[in-house]
Write a structure and sequence with these properties.
Blueprint: H1 3-6, E1 8-13, H2 16-28, E2 32-36, H3 39-49, E3 53-57, H4 62-71, E4 85-89, H5 94-102, E5 107-110, H6 115-135, E6 138-141, E7 144-147, E8 152-155, E9 158-160, H7 164-175, E10 181-182, H8 183-191, H9 201-213, E11 221-225, E12 229-233
Length: about 240
């Protein structure tokens, strides 16, 4: 994932002026920005937009939002509970700041803040998150949870049995679930085919994988991007 151009940030900010300012500047810096004025909207966007980072200040509901994200319960259960969170806070109370960190905040930025500092903190948290994600053995992408070590795959708690190649294809796509992998990338990394190889094996495996993951649901997984390749999930909701 390219942090400066592809990361999606959920901005949950109740102050209109701050929300507009951050939306405009983060967008100008190349981020995809989902905007929520309150906790309810933030939770709805969490389940559909699958952000890489949450920046939040919804006043009295910030701790509750942190708790919901980290517990993985309710609407947020379709989001990764390890999604990093930066809290914006106008409350200088030390105990409150400690509570934010103890309840799952990855960083706290005190208001009023300088935008260049916030931008640097966002980049730093995303770098740490990317390093952690690449090194961990559990991958999460929307409703899909993959235990790489045990090769167990679950979709909304339903266990899915995959062949070895289907599993390898899924793990590759889940590494960057919103990125479009080209056909040659997937043929090379999963099957070891040389560049320029012509085969329908990718399409047949992708079709079977989609059927197994989406059985009995309306989830849009293993998306065929015509003329390019595949991605695991539809792009972030606007």
């Amino acid at each position: 994932m390219s942090i400066t151009t592809e990361a999606t940030i959920l901005l949950a900010e109740e102050a209109d002026s701050t929300r507009v300012f951050l939306r405009d500047n983060l967008t100008a810096d190349g981020y995809q920005v989902l905007v929520a004025p309150d906790r309810a909207k933030a939770l709805a966007l969490l389940s559909t937009g699958h952000p890489d980072l949450i920046v939040v200040d919804v006043n009295g509901e910030t701790l509750e939002l942190l708790d919901t994200v980290r517990s993985g319960e309710g609407v947020a259960g379709r989001a990764d509970p390890d999604t990093p969170v930066i809290v914006l806070s106008g409350d200088a109370d030390r105990l409150q700041r400690i509570r934010m960190l103890e309840r799952g905040g990855d960083d706290i930025v005190e208001k009023p803040f300088a935008y260049p500092e916030l931008r640097a903190r966002i980049a730093a948290v995303l770098r740490r998150s990317e390093t952690t994600r690449r090194g961990r053995r559990i991958l999460r992408a929307g409703p899909v949870v993959i235990d790489v070590r045990s090769r167990e795959v679950r979709v909304c708690e339903r266990r899915v049995k995959l062949s070895s190649l289907e599993f390898q294809l899924l793990v590759t796509l889940a590494g960057e679930p919103h990125r479009v992998f080209t056909r040659q990338e997937l043929l090379g990394s999963v099957w070891g085919y040389a560049s320029g190889s012509r085969t329908r094996t990718l399409d047949s495996h992708a079709c079977r994988l989609r059927g197994k993951l989406c059985e009995g649901s309306d989830d849009k997984l293993v998306v065929n991007v015509w003329g390019v390749g595949y991605r695991l999930m539809d792009g972030a909701a606007g």
